[in-house]
Each structure stands twice: as structure tokens, then as C-alpha cells.
Design brief:
Distance between the termini: 21 Å
Number of strands: 4
Radius of gyration: 14 Å
Number of helices: 0
Strand order of the largest sheet: 1-4
Order of helices and strands: EEEE
Helix content: under 10%
Amino acid sequence: MGELTRPEVDVPAGDPPAELTVRDLVVGDGAEARPGMVVRVHYVGVTFASGREFDASWDRGEPFKFALGGGRVIKGW
């Protein structure tokens, strides 16, 4: 996979979804990540109401690293 670039996040108009929505922006070509594996991800967090960014790994210049399924990150990861 080539060089990654910071994505633009477009928040749709209307009411927020009633349930968590997860969407892959970039799909890699490696093995699928499974619980217990340590993954490194870049992310951009925005609020649905305003579309304003509140956090982004890109600002720190390195991906966020965590173990999948450990319950230490927000729902959806």
C-alpha cells in the first residue's frame, strides 16, 4: 500500500444515525485484524452536530496503536 494521506470527513446532513456506523476509507491488502492483535491506525474524529474536528492522529505524526478487543478504545474500533 502506498503513502497514506489525511482524509477529508464529510458529515451528512440530517439527524445522526441511531446506531454506530463504521466505514472503511482505505482497505489494506494484509491479513484481517482479529481480537488480540495490535493494530496501528490513523484517525480523524469529528462531531456529527457541527462537523468540527476534535482529534486526529495525523496531528501527532504517527498512527495510534492498540490491541483489538481489549475494551480500551471507543466503540467501533
